[in-house]
């Protein structure tokens, strides 16, 4: 692991103190999972089709302090939500569709609160995944979970960060040694099977595999990955790298759970239908209907068979895969301007071809493109809520953040007024992979 400015010692001490108070144990015995949020500069919406993606983590994320409970009991509290969660590691967890609304111990027990209280559902999902993976747990834990203070994590894959945090804590409490690639699959079980979200493996891969100062390049079909460093940016030159660029995160104020938004899963189905028709037309109908199984020349030969909607979905996939390849070359040769242009083109394709986004998100994207020093911008996350990201010249980052705050307020005064003004636009640095301290 490399260096990251997060978490601070004060943040770690605060989490350890809360767990010590909950458990009656000494703070020095409390361990902490550090699970970062991720961004995806290129590779939007193609991971579920087996495409290749580029990702990195940032110096914000989830901290989960924990201590083994010396019993099967799990007792959890959250820094963001009221109430508490109590469950046992020897309970059989069922996928979310069968969960009763009184199955969660929460302050008010309402269905709405249970949907919002993701930290409870993800703890159950982690137990479900570990059992499905063939792991036997006997040891529960006392834990306190919190996200980076004041940060709306929509669009940063907070769900994967939370899921990974619970997996790592439960594994450590039970003295299990599980590789990052195995944990990618376990977190996929949480997302796909337990919660019913049809996403790919981009998010958990970025959280578990990233390294400070590198871009993580992940082939979501083969599961092969590589960490790619920009030239001249050796590990002993972090300060030089930080002088080159920062990550700007701008929040729209929109909030919508992916598991309750049909837009995400419907886009996945449309991509699969496009793949099925293209494979059928080329005589390859026995292959799994994923766009990664359609060769680019086959797409070019038969794309006229698709209706306009499916044609747009396929065009996004193939053009985005090409942008990933070109973006990796730009990064590895230090051409941030070229990388930025590709990121912006990815954002435009997400709007025109993948047809995600909303008026506020599109307006925020357009504001970012006008901000001083911004190399490129696009939506972050699924694009149905949340935020936009930008790669910005480090020396212009403060001015750019101020510009975005002011200009977004002009076009969306109501949503802007609902944001925490100290965190409406954040200047971030690269992070590291999830790990246990």
TrEMBL record:
Protein name: Galacturonokinase
GHMP kinase N-terminal domain location: 121-209
GO annotation terms (biological process): galactose metabolic process
Keyword Hydrolase appears in the UniProt entry: no
Keyword Cytoplasm: no
Source organism per UniProt: Aristolochia fimbriata (White veined hardy Dutchman's pipe vine)
Cellular component terms (Gene Ontology): cytosol
Single annotated GO MF: ATP binding
Keyword tags: ATP-binding, Carbohydrate metabolism, Kinase, Magnesium, Metal-binding, Nucleotide-binding, Transferase
Domain GHMP kinase C-terminal: 333-409
